[in-house]
Amino acid sequence: MNHQPATTQFATQDDGIAKGDVLLKVDNVSLAFGGVKAITNISFDVRKGEIRAIIGPNGAGKTSMLNVINGFYTPQEGTITFRGNERRAMKPHHAVRQGIARTFQNVALFKGMTTLENIMAGRSVHMTRNIGWQMLWRGPALAEEIEHREKVEEIIDFLEIEHIRRTPVGKLPYGLQKRVELGRALAMEPSLLLLDEPMAGMNLEEKEDMSRFIIDVNQQRGTTIALIEHDMGVVMDLSDRVVVLDYGKKIADGTPDAVKSDQAVIDAYLGVAH
Amino acid sequence: MAQAATSLDTFPKYLLLNADRFRDRPAMRHKDYGIWQSWTWAQQMDEVRAFAIGLETIGFSRGDKVAVVGANRPRLYWTFAAVQSLGGVPVPVYGDAVAEEMAYVLDHAGVRFAVVQDQEQVDKILSFRDQIPALTEVIYDEARGLRDYAREGLHDFKEIQAAGRALLSSDPERARLWEEGIRQGSGDEISVMLYTSGTTGRSKGVMIKASAAVNAASDTVAFDSLTEKDSVLAYLPLAWVGDHYLNYAQGYVAGFCMNCPESQQTVPQDLREIAPTFYFAPPRVFEGLLTSVTIRMEDAGRLKKWIFRHFIEVARKHGEAILEKRPVPLSGRLSYALGNLLLYGPLRNVLGLSNIRVAYTAGEAIGGDLFSFFRSLGINLKQLYGQTEAFLYVTAQKDGAVRADTVGPATPNVDIRISEDGEVLFRSPGQFSGYYKEDEKTAEVMTPDGFIKTGDAGFFDSDGQLKIIDRAKDVGRLRDGSLFAPKYIENMLKFFPNIKEAVAFGNGRDFATAFINIDLQAVGDWAERNNIAYASYQELAGHPDVYKMIARNVDETNRRLAKEPMMAGAQIRRFLILHKELDADDGELTRTQKVRRAFVDERYHDLIGALYDGSTEKYVETEVTYEDGRKGKIRATVKIEDAAVHEGAAQPAREAAA
């Protein structure tokens, strides 16, 4: 009888980059929709193992920046270097293959499917058997399914969502849906995890829980995280470095303390007397 | 068997026996990573042994005390047996205790080791570790979040076991010595120290001797004929006597399988998957189950609703009789069989109660209707009465002799006596050997001839079942000497859905009276259906039709009281419906919704006076506190009604009590 599942401590993809080295580099990127310049000439980097926050007032270009990183938008100018490979145009599913996973500002789960199924969906990128095997669902395909299920169960345990394993996510409260979405992103075992406003619409307790999970993901799994967040308290507590955008331009970049006392940041958030 | 019985006086001895006689039968299951992981008795012994030997490597010695803190997890249960096998004493502690309470218990018990579930508990202990120099080693079950902690004095359960296993494989003599140590263990040693929950003052450490614990468990295992084929879901608080007794003690003696849920929130699902044969839950759990069933039926289609109502009615008529094997007409049997197919079976299955052979409830009074509902579905639900000091059982109902308002006769080998002033005293095989380091308090609860005072007032009913009526200190007497037990009367009133709260008066008075709070939801619902308009609680409470309805409930209560010789004297002569709801914000209730009698006495002094001076109404002004903290006044003229007194079946209680 098997007591404990093989403790395949879930991990990030091994990308051959040492902790503290640059994982993602954004160089002079500009993005425009017709005449609207969403991002203008922005450069920054994300180092492996850190929590990097992208903040800024509404319309500053935060989500656009995230969409550029995961390949949803292709910037007109500039380059993005991920794990040493320079690229400009790319599809999101290529980004996933390369090890970038994300969550969305408005939860984007399969509402009719259960928590378990949603997180399993996150594993599909790692499933190697073809559709014929999958339909047969015997032998190697079944073995593969079991292996993936074990990883998913580790994530369910990690995020403490055992009690909603079989609940359709559409029925869940918002805070739990956010957690399931994080679970699905984790299931991809990304080396870079993009979180778009992970605490949006949560109450204080849910925010504290989510912060805890983000820190645990970062520390225990060593996953590099880039997150967008409105709640300044959360950002300052969680992140190692912060980049501040305003009207599509970068106005500050540094540790939370440095950014907090930066005059340009204060002006952007509080407004200046004209 | 007799020879075996003399030597089997500790739980580790049972562990060795079970690892032999039930070698391949499941002893423990735990749902982890979505799958029920399972250990046989032989494997369980291996786990316990590895941990015990591991403990020795970090300096455990005979007589050491070990705090066990956390939820129901196999490793924490193994800790009990491992510590006992080395002649130590496990001290289970409530995992939700705040740091200060926990520090008190750990310090008072003088623990040297603490085996805890996770980071939360480790953090708590580290926060007060400086104040407890005796506590040197902390062992955790779940490593999550603890990676970066200072290692000194902090160990992973797995590592301790690994150290134990390494020793066992390098030194084959070790296992034999360990078993030898168990065989030489004595039943006179303290098996476990259970701290009372401390609702009335500081918690006290109740010491239970190994032989007492084993004897008590053997008696109840025989009483309910539990065997190795039974199974339980271990979901009650680990530090509570009920969990330690029902799951650990009975489990080792009977050799049945203990199942640990995945988490506190998954208990209902885990219950459904395991479908235990033995089950315990306090009344509020059953109440919750019934409510969830009722709510879900409200949303069902018409056909399903009809089936539900029809067959619940059939069950109400015949269910309990069939369960108790009393004669039932053939037509009733057929309807019930059909209902079992269509409703009761599926319902039991959904509730996780399909395989129940024996279920118990205890802790507070359970409503007759609620109790009967579950019994009528074919669930053998019974009542027991017990205490930490008794190592749980004092009384328990026998199959087939079950009633909602009593707790059964004394369990085998238990002696019960009612003291002069009505307090229940007992002497039992499992009784404690004293409060740890508090001889004075031990002496307070012991009588010179070795009985233990329960602090509860009660009496034996005509059929020999014990009836608990109230806390002994609350029980008083009317001026004519009849017994007056306020809580007993209040509970009887509160079983009516229309009555939310009640306060009875009568100690030192001529007769008993009561304040009544209506249940705004139930009565409001009734008002809506009967086209009675009302604007506030106060208006509804004063409505003549509401008074009529409550008067019927009071009358029924009196009728029931009249049937009981001990209680017949304290029938309610006059009552009133309070113009406001009793509220914790106004200090009338405790935060756990219990009536604060002294406070209510003082605050409503005028109204109580009116209950006894014969007036039919009384004008009062009452100060109230709104939710935002502002104060206001409620003015009302409260009506007071008389209630008829019923002739009892027997003579009033005076003679019986005197």
From TrEMBL, chain A:
Residues 24-272 form the ABC transporter domain. It comes from the Bacteria. The keyword Lipid biosynthesis does not apply. PROSITE patterns: ABC_TRANSPORTER_2. It comes from Neoaquamicrobium microcysteis. GO terms for cellular component: plasma membrane. GO terms for molecular function: ATP binding; ATP hydrolysis activity. Gene3D superfamilies: P-loop containing nucleotide triphosphate hydrolases (3.40.50.300). SMART domains: AAA. This is ABC transporter ATP-binding protein. PANTHER family: ABC TRANSPORTER ATP-BINDING PROTEIN, CONSERVED COMPONENT OF ABC TRANSPORTER FOR NATURAL AMINO ACIDS-RELATED. Keywords: ATP-binding, Nucleotide-binding, Transport.
From TrEMBL, chain B:
Keywords: ATP-binding, Ligase, Nucleotide-binding. Residues 18-436 form the AMP-dependent synthetase/ligase domain. GO terms for cellular component: membrane. InterPro entries: AMP-binding_CS (IPR020845), AMP-dep_synth/lig_dom (IPR000873), ANL_N_sf (IPR042099). One of its GO terms (molecular function) is long-chain fatty acid-CoA ligase activity. It comes from the Bacteria. The keyword ATP-binding applies. PANTHER family: AMP-BINDING DOMAIN-CONTAINING PROTEIN-RELATED, LONG-CHAIN-FATTY-ACID--COA LIGASE. This is Long-chain fatty acid--CoA ligase. It comes from Neoaquamicrobium microcysteis.
